[in-house]
Amino acid sequence: MSKMIFVNLPVADLAKSMAFYEALGFVNEPRFTDETAAAMQWSDTIVVMLLTHPKWKSFTSKAIVDAKASAQVMLCIGIDSRAAVDAITEAAAGAGGLADPNPPQDYGFMYGRSFEDPDGHIWEPMWMDPKMASGEMAPPEHQPA
């Protein structure tokens, strides 16, 4: 089995959150979805598990953070192009999320924006020049003068 990541997120309204992630291109995996949780597949190796608050609380005794008031993580995801970064950020805003809760970042070789889902979880779509990502190019501060 390849290495995978399952991002577990507590959500206040499961149906609303499912619709939001579907608007961004995630696909529901019905085998792992019921009235308490939904598996939203983004790629062969990335799945977002949306968990109702009662379901979340069955896994941990820690309090659910109000992601609209506090940040615990920012989930950075690699995107294929600068235009695709803009597209997913605008799609998030159009689907009930918030675009750019953090300032956009443009370093030339790397470009990123951010969005919040309806519960306030922060995602950071980011594009990096393939030569930089592969190591063929050094970051500007490390390039010879």
Automatic annotation (TrEMBL):
Q: Which PROSITE patterns match?
A: VOC
Domain named VOC is located at 3-128
* Domain of life assignment: Bacteria
Family annotation (InterPro entries): Glyas_Bleomycin-R_OHBP_Dase, Glyoxy/Ble-like_N, VOC_core
Could you state a single Gene Ontology molecular function term?
A: lyase activity
Identify the keywords attached in UniProt to this record, alphabetized.
Lyase
KW Lyase (keyword) present:
yes
Q: Name one Pfam family in it.
A: Ble-like_N
Give the protein's recorded name: Lactoylglutathione lyase
Tell me the organism.
Answer: Croceibacterium salegens
